[in-house]
Amino acid sequence: MVPNEMILKGNEVNTEKALKSKLISKRRHHTLPQWGTAWLVLFPALIFLTMFMLYPILNTFLSAFVQSYHYSDSAGSFAISQFIAGVLDGNETDMAFGLSNFKRAMGNGTFLRSIGNTAILVIIEVPLTITVSLLIATFLNSIKVLKGFYQSVFFLPYVTNTIALGLVFGIVFSNTEGGLANVLITKLGGKPINWLSWMADEHLGQAPATRFHQGIVIVLYALWNGLAFKILVFMAGLATIDSQYYNAAKIDGASNFTIWRRITLPLLSPQILYITITSFIGAFKMYTGVMAVYSNMNVTKPAYYFGGADGNDWVPVVGWIYSTLDGNRNNTGEASAASLILLGIIMVITAVQFAVSKKRVHY
Amino acid sequence: MAEHAMYFTDDKARRIYLTKKIISRVFVYLFLSIFALFLIAPFIMMIAGSFISADSFHKFTLNGDFSYLGFGTNELGEANWSFANYKQILSMNNANYNFPVYFLNTFIVAIISTTVTVVTSVLAGFAFARLEFKGKEALFAILLATMMIPGEMMVITNVITVDLLGWYNTFAALTLVHGVSVFYVFYLRQTFQQIPNELYLAAKVDGVSDLGYLWKVMVPIAMPTITTIIILSMMGAWNSYVWPNLVTDNTGWALNGNHSMKLVSNGLRDAFNANGLETGEAIKIAGSMVISTPLFIVFILFRKYIMRGVSRSGIKG
Amino acid sequence: MDVRIENLTKTFVGKKGVETTAVDKMTFTIPDGKLVGLLGPSGCGKSTTLYMIAGLHKPTGGRIWFGDEDVTNVPPENRGIGLVFQNYALYPHLSVRQNIEFPLDNVRFPGPYGEEENRLFDAQNDEKTSIKDLARTEKTIAKTEKQVDSLSKKLESAKSAGDEETAARVQEKIENGKKRIESLKEHIASVNEHLKFVAEEIKKAEVELEKAKAAYEELKVKDPVAAEEKARTKLSKEDKDAIALEMAKVVDIAQFLDRKPKELSGGQQQRVAIARALAKRPRVLLLDEPLSNLDARLRLQTREEIKRIQRETGITTVFVTHDQEEAMSISDFIVVMKLGVIQQIDEPQKVYEEPANLFVAKFLGSPAINVFDGELKAGKLLLNGEVIDIDKAYKGEDRPVKVAVRPESFEYVEKGANVPVVVTTVEQIGRDITVNGNIKGQENHIKAIIPSELRAKILGKAEVSFRAKRLYVFEETGERIK
Prior knowledge:
The structure holds three protein chains of three kinds. By secondary structure, chain A is an all-alpha fold.
C-alpha cells in the first residue's frame, strides 16, 4: 500500500499539521543520573548474588572453621550469627575456631574412600573422554557427507536427562531384567556378569557386583555424557584454523598424521587446555553421573546410593558431602570442611595444569 | 583436492593414492559410526523398550529369546507392542509417585526460573555493557571471582537458608535460589557490547532514555542470544536433580493438600523404590521416555540455538 | 537558526592526570541556512566540536547559542538537532520507515504553550546545572590549592637540600597548578555572569508562559475548534507516516520504506540516516564524516545529494570531514582547524586562493601545494639569489621565508622563467602533464602541472624553468606575508 494514498483518504487536516507545523521535543522532565539507573537495574541481580552466592561462600568458610557448629531451628544457624551470639554470650565453645571439622572429615573412612573413588574415576575418565572426543572432532571435521547427521547424534546426550538415561543404562547393565549387555555376552558365549547389583543372585550363580564392574559402567556412562560438549568445542576450534595452513603443509609433502600432530594440535591447544581444565574440575565435582547408573536400584536413599551393600562402593566426594548434610544438619561444619578440601584439591590440580600449559599452548 | 588436478607419475601411483584415500575414508566413517552407535544405543533401547509389553521384555531378557519380540500377543494375552506402558506410567498414582504432578511442577519451575533469570541477566548485562557507575570494575571483579567457585560450596549454606526462610518444599526455593546466573550475565554483556556505540548516541539525540534504549533497541537486536538463554535455562530446569533433591520431597506443599513438590528427575529416581512401585523394566523405560521426549522435541526444533549457545559460552544452564 | 560558538573549550584528562586540549577557545558563527564544513586532519578537534554542538560532550568552557537561546547546558535531545554518523547507525531490527519514525516517538506538537513551558524548564535546568558546575569547580580549586601548598613545601625542602633538578621540576608543577587555578577562577567568574543572565531568562520565560496560557484561554472561548486543534500534541500514526514519507521523498529512498537496512547499499543507508535526522525538523543538522564509509563513486554521488537536500530544506548544516575536496565542493563556508584552533574561516574558493597560513595552504588543494625556501632581501623575494617577484615589495627585515606555489600555477614561458626545476619524472595523463622534480639547489619536491600541448618543449630536458603565476610567501613560522 502506498502510504501516500493511505494518508490522503482521511485525516487530511491532521497530516497537514504534521507536515507543516513545528515539532518540539517531549515534555522536559528530570531524569535519573546514569549511576542511579545502573544500581536500580542491578538491584535484583545483586540481591540474588548476595543472598545465594556471596554469603554462602563466606558462610561455608566460616562454618568449616567454627569448632562446634550446631544447627538449630532458630536464627542461630547462620555460622556468623552463631559466632556473634557466642561473642556476646561469652560462650567459649561457640566461638572457638579450629580445625576440628577438618580432622573429623579426614578421620571419616567414607570420606577418604570418596576421595580415592573420585581420583580413580577422574584419572580414567577424563583422558579417555578427551582423546576420544578429539579424534571424533577431527574426523567429523574432515568429512562432508552426513556431517550434520553425525553432529546431531553426538550432541544428543547433552540434551538428555541424566536420571532418565542413567536409568536406561542401569537397565541395560542389569543382571536380572533387561540386561542387554548380558544378553549380548551370553550370545557371544560368555557368562552373564553382575554389573551393578549388590545382591548376590544364587539363582543365576552370581556374586555381588564387584567394584571393577561397577566402575566400568560408571566410566562408560561418563564417556557417553561427556563427548557432546567437548566435541562441540573442538569442532568450533577446528573451524577457526585457516585451511591455508593445511594447504601449505600439503605442498611441503606432509602426511595427514604429521599435519594433525604438528599443525592441528598446536593450533587447537587453547581449546584443548580449556577442555582439559574444565573437564578435570567438572570430574572432581562428579556426583549425578555416578548416582545415575544406580537409578535402577531399589534402595531407601536413592540420591546417595553408590553401589554395594552400604551404598558407598563408589561414593564420590560431592556425594559424600551432600549425604552428610542431608543426614544431619549438624554436620554442616564437616561438610563445609570437606568442600574446602575439595576446593583445595581442584585449585592445586588447575594450577599444575596452567603451569604445564605455559610451554605447550600457543595462542 | 581434485584428483584430476593432481599429478601422478603413472597410473599405478594414482591407484595407490586412491586406494589409500578410500581406506582412510572407510576407517573414518567406521570410527564415527561405532561411536555414533554407542551413543544411539541407549535411545534405541529407550524407544523400543517403552513400547514393548513389560512381560515380553522381561522374558526376552531372561532368555535372550528373540521370539518374544515379535508382533502379536504374548502369553498373557496382551499385545506385544503397544502404548500400555505409557498408560500405566501416567495413570499410576500413589503417595510416593505421581508423574503428572512432577511434570506440572517442573513446568512451572522452568517457566518461573527462566523468567527470573532472563530478567536479571538482561538488566545486569545491560548495566555492565552500557552504563557507567562507581564501583563498576569492583563489582565485575566480584562476579568474575564467583564464577570460579564451585557451586557445591554454596549449596551447603543455601540448604540451611532455605530451611530458615521456610522455603522447604516451595516453588520459591526451586526458582529463586538460582535466580541469577553469572554466565548468562557475561554472555549478554558480551552480546550487548557488540552493538555499535553510535546507535546509542543516535538514540540519545532522539531523546531515548537509557532504559528505553535497552527495551527498544538492545533487546530486539540481542534476541537470538536471549532466545538461546531461554532455551538453555528451560533445559536446565528440566534436567535438574541435585538441588530439588535437597529442598523438596513428597510430603507436599500446603497449596492443595499434600502435593508432591518433586521435579521429574527426582520423581523418576524415587518412584521405583522400596516405598514405590515394583514394576517391570519396560515400564521404567517408558517413564524415562516420557521425561526425555519434551527435550527431544526442543532439541529438534532449536538445535542451532542450543549448539551455538553452548559453544559460545560453554555452559549447561 | 544560526549557530554561535563562543570560546568553546574542551580538555580531556587522561590517565595520570595528563591534560589534552582538544578544542581551544574556538569562536565563530554559522549563519542561518548555510552548509558549513569543519575541515582538518585527525585529532584537530573537529569531531569534538561537532559533538559539543550536538550536546553529547560537555564543554569545559565557553558557550553555544542556537539563535538567541543558550543551549550550553541543554541536553542533546532538547536542542533540536539531527545527527548523522559515519557508519549510519541505523537500527538493524527496524524497517527504513520505522527507523525514520523512531525519533518521532519522542517529539510532539508544541500544543497551546508547549514552547514556553520548555523554555522555562530549560532555563531552570540551566540554573541548576550551572550551580552544580560552580560547586564542582570550587572543590577542584580547593584541591588544587592544597596540592600547590604541599608542592611549595617540597620546593622548600628541595632548595634547602640544594637539589636543583627536583626544585626546577617542582617549580614547574607549581606554575602549572597556579595557571590551572587561574583558569578555574575565570571559569567561575563566567559562570556567575551566566547565572545572572539565566535568572533574567527565567523571569522572562515565566512571563511568556503566563501570556501564552492566557492567550490559549482566550482562544478556547473565541474559537473552540482551533483551540482543540492547537491542543493536540501527540503525533498519530498517520502523522508519523506522512512525515516519514515526506523525508523519504526528500532523500530519494521512498521506494525502500519497507525494507530493512541490511538490504540497502551504503549510499542508500546513509540517505536513510539523513532522513531520520531530518524527521524531527531539527534546527541544526550535524554530519560526522558522512561520506567516509562510502566508496569513491558513491561518495561523489552522495555529497551532491547532501548539497541538494540542504538547499531544499534550508536547514543550517555543519559537517565534519578530513577530505578537503569534499569540503571544498559543497560547503558554503569552510572552517579549517588544527589542534583545536581555527586556522581560517571563509568561502571555499577564498580559503583556497587566499590561505591565511602555510598549514591551510598545504591542506587544501590536490595535488598538494609546492613549498620551497626563499629569502627576503631588501624587500624583494629571492630564490637561489635571484629575484622572482619583481613587482611586489615586501616589508620587514631580511629573513628566510617559505614560498608556496600551487602545481597549476606554474607556467612554462620562453622568457622570464625564474623557478628552475631539476626534473626527475614526467607523467602524461592525457589532459595535462605533471612534471616531478625539485628546486635546483634544494631538496624540496616540486610538482608542476602544465597543459599537454607543451609536451615537446619539456620532454627530454633535465632541467626546466617555470614562472610562478601566483605565489604565496610565508614566514618560517607559517603566517602569511602579504
